Amino acid sequence: MPAIELSAAHGSVGSVSSVRECPVCDCRLVQPLHSMRFFLPDAHPLADGYDVVACLACGAVYADTPSFQADYDRYYADSSRYSDPRTGTGAGVQAWDDARLEATARMVADLLPDRTARIADIGCANGGLLRWFARLGFDQLLGVDPSPACVTAAAEIPGVEARRGTIFDLPLEPASVECVMLSHVLEHVRDVGAAVANLRNVLSTNGTAYVEVPDATRYAECLAAAFQDFNVEHINHFSPTSLTNMLRRGGFEVEHVGQKTIEASPGVPYPAVWAVARATVSRGTPVVQPDQTLAGCIRDYVDRSAAAIAVYDAFLDRALADVPEIVVWGTGQTTLTLLSSTRVGGSRVVAFTDSNPLYHGRRLAGRPVLPPEDVAGIDAPILVGSIIHRRAITDRIRELGLPNPVVTLDVARPLFQA
């Protein structure tokens, strides 16, 4: 297979050997595209930075993280952001999220004429997708998730059995299900080859796999927050080509590949790519279609994100010019980016808060993470450290009746109010 030729523009250097093998073809010869560094809560199991690289053999793009799969398994078991249905997706609590889940369930249901087919949703979060399969008449439904809170929530759905596990420790017998759903999971997985092998192992012969991941070819097109997809969780950046290559190499026959735009929060578009594949008898089909365009799409995303960071920094410099102390609401990617790349990273932050109770009592950048109710006792403005979930957070601030002034990163219509 010919090597991919990548430009040395945008400050990237020549080829290097990666720490982590390519998730699509296992090659280790890569070109760095961007370097990310994070402020992480104390005792966080994942690395505080990595390089985003492009594989010179197949063109796949991924995070060259030094963290191991066991580190990610521990992180998702102990710190799942999906445990908070207000901002986490997958529960179907919010109308916009529920519409996405319904559309996916109906599309897959059309491929499964037998309503007795056993369906397993791996990484089911709070079970919103399984709830829709139950509504469509399926009665053999299983959810698997590493988070105990998510397993408990999914098990409360009538007709759904939920078990704790990961794609590397599936509580399923070989060839025991006719359909496996893997929606927005593989971008989080370090050992992709092993994950796909396990997925194929639990499928019956000619069983159906539905796999959906973020579409990295359109990150720049749907940019909502700077470097939102270069975070501690998203470590594989798929295109339609690399998703197809990965599944074929894992012993699947890819029948359909498509792109769609979903919502990350109300009115915030997010790009996705999906594939429907069948488990085949043969294994190890080689990668045959190198991706010549993905690295360029990622460079465009880096450029646009860097420009957005400059806008955030200038806005915050003005909005917080005379503010000695602030509370930051949110411990997600935008907050981590602000801490590492803007003036927010200084000593003026006195505390963080987050709706997810799993984060309460921890410390980030040396500051405590408090329950939202405790913020009322701090005489300081609240900086909303999220763009995608800004509306949900500001609604929560109003619900709690917090008297603190609020600053958001909606730089087109800056909000600073009591």
> What can be said about the biggest beta sheet?
7 strands, mixed
- How many DSSP-defined strands? 19
Shape: globular
- SSE-based structural type: alpha/beta
The main sheet orders its strands as: 7-6-5-8-9-12-11
First-residue to last-residue Cα separation? 61 Å
The CATH architecture term of the largest domain is 3-Layer(aba) Sandwich
CATH superfamily of the largest domain: Vaccinia Virus protein VP39
Q: Can you tag this structure with a few keywords?
A:
418 residues; alpha/beta; Rossmann fold; 2 domains; 7-stranded mixed beta sheet; 19 strands; 26% helix; 26% strand; disordered C terminus
Please characterize this protein's 3D structure:
- This protein has 418 residues and is α/β, with parallel strands linked by helices.
- The protein folds into two domains: 69-288, Vaccinia Virus protein VP39 (Rossmann fold), CATH 3.40.50.150; 324-417, 3-Layer(aba) Sandwich (Rossmann fold).
- The chain is built from nine helices and 19 strands.
- Helix 2 packs across helix 3 (128-135).
- The relative contact order is 0.12.
- Residues 8-12 and 412-418 have low confidence and may be disordered.
Structural topology:
Elements: E1 16-17, E2 29-37, E3 49-55, E4 61-64, H1 69-78, H2 95-109, E5 118-122, H3 128-135, E6 140-145, H4 148-155, E7 160-164, E8 177-183, H5 192-202, E9 203-214, E10 236-237, H6 240-249, E11 252-265, E12 268-279, H7 294-319, E13 326-329, H8 333-341, E14 349-353, E15 363-364, E16 367-370, E17 382-384, H9 390-400, E18 406-407, E19 416-417
Parallel strand pairs: 5-6, 5-8, 6-7, 8-9, 13-14, 13-17, 14-16, 17-18
Antiparallel strand pairs: 1-2, 2-3, 3-4, 4-10, 9-12, 11-12, 15-16, 18-19
Helix pairs in contact: 2-3
